[in-house]
Amino acid sequence: MAADHETVTLRLPASLPIGDLPRVTLAALLRIHRVNPTDVGDLAASVQERAHEMNAAGSDVILDYQVSSAEVAIDLSGNGRTLRISAPRR
Q: Which residues of 45-71 are buried (b: 16+ CB within 10 A; e: fewer)?
């Protein structure tokens, strides 16, 4: 991975149910970067919950996933706000 600047973006339109896509995308990135899911605690549940809240408000949701040697971070944008959820890597 090139430094801490690589980002994977997932865009979810308000017109479609988002289901488990935020959680599944995070799981795939953790596998690619060989991060043990238990090392980032409840990050997946938090991302899933916040994405559903934004989508339920009728907003498109944009998730920017970033995995570095120090942390796993997801920026969620939608419903007129941006929220960062992160967890340090152990």
A: ebbbebbbebbeeebebbbbbbbeeee
This prediction has a pTM of 0.84
Determine the 3-state secondary structure of 88 from DSSP: strand
The predicted structure's pLDDT at residue 4:
54
Q: Is the dihedral of CA 28, 88, 49, 13 positive or negative?
A: negative
Helix runs in the chain, H state only: 21-32, 43-56
Cα 48 off chain centre by = 8
Pull the structure tokens for residue 84.
């960062």
Partners of 33 in beta bridges: none
